[in-house]
Design brief:
The chain is an alpha+beta fold and 475 residues long. The protein is built from 13 helices and 18 strands. Among the domains are: 158-368 and 452-468, Creatine Amidinohydrolase, CATH 3.90.230; 375-441, Orthogonal Bundle (Arc Repressor Mutant, subunit A), CATH 1.10.10.10.
Length: 475
């Protein structure tokens, strides 16, 4: 029995030795395999960081079977890290997929997009802002720009100023359009209708809330103001004409009155230069507490410092003494104060919060205008706007209702009545003029053979600064 037992013990010892050798080899193989797995994971992480695809190695790693718990834990940790990286990548992608801001609208050519859509935040461009001039004693008005009280007052009127600015931006864009297409050979009706079509689109016309402030003036040569063609007028613009383009826009009755002169023959350049300089001089010297007569004096002095040679003859450029600038009220183009363009006259002062049209007219003629040609401009009498007027003609009553509904106390012309579908209304219109409820404004002309020019801007006398609200890059 003992011999047998001894033999069994020896065999067991041999087996144990053999088993130890096998386990060592197995552990070594496992360690090598684990190191391979770790290396592959490191490679995979590096490739993920660099963005290199690793489909084949990834598939091989998935097929690898971990042998002990340590390696299983390592693989699970790697999977968690990979999930976190993928989650992080997803967040990054979400951040990159931010909603795009709506594209800013650009104006078309010809202009058709309303100004309100081009500036949806209602922050319309400001005009040229400047300090007020020093008074006669040399005292500066710079304190207004820094005064907290004046700034607060100015802010309280911001909604009103914004209406002016919206109308002014429409005016700037329309006149840029006009300056691009106007040329000899076009009829005056075509010029006016193209201008008015653009104005109606940009101002987003809505009866009395927004629209054209008065008819488009396109007065030629010796005619200085208040000419617009009636239906059937076949007048054509020529190379030797001097044409005054005077039109207005409004938002809620806040009127922009602004004009410029077009000429194609360079021989008239000095006339245009003189009038533009006179207008800018008037704007520069205008301000709160400035006397209107003093403004007229500096305007005339500037205007009449110019001469022009036409066809071998020299002419002094004269200020047209019976034309002037004016204050502007809500729905009222002439609000009561006049801004003369010659010395003398009213000593009334400009006041804070007022709005003025600074316009000057120069002429190679006598410098005095008179009524001439067929009337086209009309305007409801502001003082009688709310008064009851006895009218005998039913057609006159109907026409007055149409005028009140569409134009109110703003100026209008016969073409605009035609546009509303009215016919055979001339007798009714005459009846309204005879009764005083509507006033006619016929064309104003200097002597035949002379030439006239006009430039005009609207200014706001804000509490803390002067704003030339209609100022543009063109003039």
């Amino acid at each position: 029995m003992s011999a047998v037992v001894e033999k069994v013990e020896v065999n067991g010892e041999a087996n144990a030795i053999e088993n130890d050798i096998d386990m060592k080899q197995l552990n070594e193989a496992i360690n090598e395999e684990g190191q391979d797995i770790k290396k592959k994971k490191k490679k995979k992480k590096k490739k993920k960081k660099t963005g290199t695809p690793d489909n084949e190695e990834g598939a091989a790693e998935t097929c690898e079977t971990p042998v002990n718990g340590k390696e299983t834990e390592d693989v699970e940790n790697g999977a968690e890290e990979q999930g976190e990286q993928e989650a992080g990548t997803g967040e990054t992608k979400k951040k990159r997929k931010r909603k795009k801001k709506p594209a800013v609208k650009q104006q078309t050519d010809p202009p058709t997009i309303p100004i309100s859509e081009l500036f949806p935040n209602k922050n319309f461009p400001h005009g040229q802002e400047s300090e007020y001039p020093a008074d006669k004693d040399g005292r500066s008005a710079a304190w207004r720009t820094t005064s907290a009280e004046k700034k607060a007052m100015d802010t309280s009127y911001e909604e009103m100023w914004n209406d002016f600015r919206q109308a002014a931006e429409a005016h700037r864009q329309v006149r840029k359009h006009v300056q691009g297409f106007i040329k000899p050979g076009l009829t005056m009706i075509e010029i006016c209708e193209r201008l008015e079509q653009a104005s109606r689109s940009l101002i987003n016309e809505n009866k009395l809330e927004a629209g054209l402030a008065f008819p488009t003036g396109c007065s030629l040569n010796n005619c200085a103001a208040h000419y617009t063609p009636n239906s059937g007028d076949k007048t054509v613009l020529t190379y030797d004409d001097v044409c005054k383009i005077d039109f207005g826009t409004h938002i809620n009755g806040r009127i922009i009155d602004c004009a410029f002169t077009v000429s194609f023959n360079p021989k008239y350049d000095k006339l245009l230069e003189a009038v533009k300089d006179a207008t800018n001089t008037g704007i520069k010297n205008a301000g709160i507490d400035v006397r209107l007569c003093d403004l007229g004096e500096v305007i005339q002095e500037t205007m009449e410092s110019y001469e022009i040679d036409l066809d071998g003859k020299t002419y002094q450029i004269r200020s047209i003494r019976n034309l002037s600038g004016h204050s502007i009220g809500q729905y009222r183009i002439h609000a009561g104060k006049t801004v003369p363009i010659v010395r003398g006259g009213d000593q009334t002062k400009m006041e804070e919060g007022e709005v003025f049209a600074i316009e000057t007219f120069g002429s190679t003629g006598r410098g005095i205008v008179h009524d001439d040609m067929e009337c086209s401009h009309y305007m409801k009498n502001f003082d009688l706007a709310n008064s009851h007027v006895n009218l005998r003609l039913p057609r006159a009553k109907r026409l007055l209702h149409l005028i009140s509904e569409n134009f109110g106390t703003l100026a209008f012309c016969r073409r605009w009545i035609d546009r509303l579908g009215e016919t055979k209304y001339l007798m009714a219109l005459k009846s309204l003029c005879d009764s005083g409820v509507v006033d006619p404004y016929p064309p104003l002309c200097d002597i035949k053979g002379c030439y006239t020019a006009q430039f005009e801007h609207t200014i706001i006398l804000r509490p803390n600064c002067k704003e030339v609200v209609s100022r543009g890059d063109d003039y």
